[in-house]
UniProtKB/TrEMBL annotation:
InterPro entries: DUF389 (IPR005240)
Keyword NADP tagged: no
Pfam family, one: DUF389
Transmembrane segments: 116-134, 140-163, 175-200, 220-237, 244-270, 276-297
Origin: domain of life: Bacteria
Name of the protein described by the UniProt record: DUF389 domain-containing protein
Native organism: Kineosporia corallincola
Keywords: Membrane, Transmembrane, Transmembrane helix
Length: 316
């Protein structure tokens, strides 16, 4: 269930109020005339079945709730109400399958913007991955995967491609390229310092590594895992299941590949340079491709559902 708060400069129109009160998927409609002082206007509050939010928002836009208005959405974790149960029954599908596209787009725009936090986490994750390679530690590999923040812009690329949001695609691709370049550069410099101190040698990197050798040797399964992880990650975002993202983070070897690449550059191990770069590219490409496929299917399915709902409303 989603709580919707509308701030309507100039006042709420009769059409908007009538629509919200008439739609069986909307309940607890409250109108507060003149409640907003800056900008002056009315506030409208209501609760909406999650799987109907995008459809309700699209209808509100046709009724004049444009960019001058403020539309805020908030998850309701628990609600006990006969009206809530009736709204859920009126909305097609399961609440867990409901996609709030406005949130998906908003998250993508946020993930496509760079921040110091993003770059810092990516650098730290790549440094941890480099230590994992040197010590052949699978535990540290998992730690580096969890710390890495790269799935945000990866999913933003997929959202931008499927929904035709060019600025989101450009921003997310730029963030990924600059982020990995910076993380690899910092890790390479750290490895060069370690090499000068005698802590890092080419033999350490090129040694047989039974627990971390997969990082620089991509194969068909690397691409398969990237596809599966990308699909799971996008599903977790659209369904609001953020806890599932942890599984995605520890499935793909993007950050570990970046750490291995940095080490190989610092001590110059050409085979691992190419292998780690290929692993990084395979994982990023696989996740973007899977994300596009999943979002494309979800867009078609939710579009069909919205059409069915509108037809049912016309009949009633």
């Amino acid at each position: 269930m989603i709580h919707l708060r509308l701030v309507l400069p100039g006042g709420a129109s009769k059409d908007v109020i009538d629509y919200l009160c008439r739609d069986s998927r909307v309940f607890n409609v409250a109108v507060l005339p003149g409640a907003v002082q800056d900008p002056p206007g009315d506030m409208v509050l209501c609760d909406v079945a999650r799987e109907a939010v995008s459809d309700v928002d699209a209808t509100l836009q046709t009724l004049g709730v444009d960019r001058n208005a403020t539309v805020a959405m908030q998850d309701i974790d628990t609600i006990r109400s006969d009206a809530a149960e009736a709204a859920e029954r009126a909305a097609p599908g399961s609440p867990d399958d409901g996609i709030v596209w406005e949130r998906v787009v908003g998250q993508a725009r946020s993930d496509a913007r760079g921040s110091w936090a993003f770059h810092t986490f990516l650098i730290l994750a790549t440094l941890i991955a480099a230590v994992a390679v040197l010590t052949d530690s699978s535990v540290l590999v998992v730690g580096a995967m969890v710390v890495g923040p790269e799935f945000g812009p990866v999913s933003a690329v997929a959202v931008g491609l499927v929904l035709g949001l060019r600025p989101v695609v450009v921003g997310a691709v730029r963030l990924l390229v600059l982020g990995f370049l910076l993380a690899i550069t910092v890790t390479t410099l750290a490895a060069l310092a370690g090499r000068a101190a005698g802590w890092v040698t080419a033999a350490d990197v090129a040694a047989d590594r039974p627990f971390t050798g997969f990082i620089w040797t991509p194969d068909r399964w690397s691409f398969v895992v990237a596809l599966l992880a990308g699909a799971a990650g996008v599903l977790s975002l659209t369904a609001g299941r953020s806890n599932a993202l942890v599984g995605v983070f520890i499935s793909v070897t993007t950050v570990p590949a970046a750490g291995n690449l940095a080490l190989a550059l610092a001590v110059w191990v050409p085979d691992e340079i190419g292998g780690a770069a290929a692993q990084l590219g395979v994982n990023l490409a696989g996740m973007v491709l899977a994300g596009c496929l999943v979002l494309g299917v979800q867009r078609v399915l939710t579009g069909l559902n919205r059409g069915a709902v509108r037809a049912e409303q016309r009949r009633s």
